[in-house]
Design brief:
Structural class: alpha/beta
Number of domains: 3
CATH topology of the largest domain: D-Maltodextrin-Binding Protein, domain 2
Order of helices and strands: HHHEEHEHEEEHEHEHEHEH
Shape: elongated
Number of helices: 10
Strand order of the largest sheet: 4-3-5-10-6-9-7-8
CATH class of the largest domain: Alpha Beta
Largest sheet: 8 strands, mixed
Strand content: 15-25%
Distance between the termini: 53 Å
CATH architecture of the largest domain: 3-Layer(aba) Sandwich
Mean pLDDT: 89
Helix content: 40-55%
Radius of gyration: 24 Å
Length: about 290
C-alpha cells in the first residue's frame, strides 16, 4: 500500500501544542523555538487547507477540525512509543500524568500507591499536587483529582466520594469549646471557599457569627495552622484521620456537613487513555461513589 509522505515534524508540533494548548510549553517539550513550532503548524494548516487552532491572548484553542485530528494523532504516537519500548527490550509502561489536590494526595492516595503499583505495574504514575486550581492542558495532565461540585466546563467528571466537614483544632483550644456558640471566642481559620464556614454555622443553628481569621489556599496548611493552635479549621475529616487518631487534632462538635465531593476529571476533547481508564476503575473499586 502506497502511503503519502507524512509531515511528521509538523504533526508532532500540532499534537504537542494541542495537548498543552500553549505554544511555549509545546516548543519546550520538543526542544525547538516557538517560532519554529508555529511555522510547522502553519505549514500543516496550509497543507490540509484548514485552520487547526484559534489563537488566543493566552494560549490557543482547538477548532473543530483540530479537535477531530488530535485523538487520532495522540493514539498513533502512543502506540508507536509502546511498540518502540517493546522492541528495545524494555518493559512497556504507559505514563499517566495525574494532578491531585494536596489534601487527597496525603490523606488518601499516598498510603495506597503501593497497592496501585502492584495491581498495575505497567503504569508509571507522575503525580503533581495542586490546591484545587488546575489547568489540565496547560500542565500537560491526563487527569486530575479535585474537590468541588463537578461543574468544570469542557471536562468529563467522574464522582468519587464525599467526606463530611467539621471544625477541628488543637487540644489546647478544644478545652474551651463545649458548644458551637463558643466559636465566637476563637479564631476561625478559612479556606479560599468563602461559603464553607457560613454553611456549617447555619447547619449548627448559629447566626450572626462570621469567620474573620486568616485565609489559606490549601487545606494542608490550614490543618497545619490548626495543629499549632492558631485557630479552628473546617476540614474534611476523612483526609485527616491520622491527625485525629493521634490526638494532634480534635473534633469538638458532632455536627458535620457535606460541602462537596472528590472527582476524577479529564478533558472532554481528548479520549480517555487506557491508563486513565484503569486508574478510574481502581479508584471506583477502592471506594468511589460513596
Amino acid at each position: 500500500m502506497l502511503r503519502p509522505q507524512l509531515p511528521l515534524n509538523a504533526l508532532r508540533a500540532f499534537e504537542a501544542a494541542a495537548r498543552h494548548q500553549n505554544l511555549t510549553r509545546a516548543a519546550d517539550e520538543l526542544c525547538v523555538s516557538q517560532a519554529a513550532l508555529s511555522h510547522q503548524i502553519k505549514a500543516l494548516e496550509e497543507r490540509l487547507g484548514t485552520v487547526l487552532f484559534q489563537r488566543l491572548p493566552r494560549g490557543v484553542a482547538l477548532t473543530d477540525e483540530g479537535a477531530a485530528l488530535l485523538p487520532v494523532l495522540s493514539e498513533a504516537f502512543d502506540r508507536i512509543g509502546l511498540s518502540l519500548d517493546r522492541l528495545a527490550g524494555g518493559e512497556a509502561r504507559e505514563v499517566l500524568n495525574l494532578g491531585v489536590v494536596g489534601t487527597f494526595a496525603t490523606g488518601w492516595l499516598l498510603p495506597r500507591l503501593p497497592a496501585f503499583a502492584a495491581a498495575h505495574p505497567d503504569i508509571e504514575l507522575r503525580i503533581s499536587t495542586h490546591n484545587n486550581r488546575v489547568d489540565l492542558p496547560g500542565e500537560g495532565l491526563d487527569a486530575a483529582i479535585r474537590f468541588g461540585d463537578g461543574d468544570w466546563p469542557g471536562e468529563v467528571c467522574t464522582p468519587l466520594w464525599s467526606t463530611p466537614f467539621a471544625p477541628v483544632c488543637a487540644p489546647v483550644l478544644a478545652q474551651a469549646l463545649r458548644q458551637p456558640r463558643d466559636l465566637a471566642h476563637v479564631t476561625l481559620l478559612r479556606s479560599f471557599r468563602a461559603d464553607e464556614w457560613p454553611r456549617w454555622l447555619a447547619a449548627a443553628g448559629l447566626s450572626g457569627l462570621q469567620a474573620r481569621g486568616p485565609q489559606f489556599d490549601s487545606s494542608l496548611t490550614l490543618a497545619s495552622a490548626a495543629t499549632r493552635g492558631a485557630g479552628v479549621a473546617l476540614l474534611p475529616l476523612a483526609m485527616f484521620e491520622q491527625e485525629l487518631a493521634s490526638g494532634r487534632l480534635l473534633q469538638p462538635f458532632a455536627q458535620t456537613l457535606e460541602l462537596g465531593r472528590y472527582w476524577l476529571t479529564r478533558l472532554r476533547s481528548r479520549p480517555e487513555s487506557v491508563a486513565a481508564a484503569r486508574l478510574r476503575q481502581w479508584l471506583e473499586d477502592e471506594g468511589g461513589e460513596r
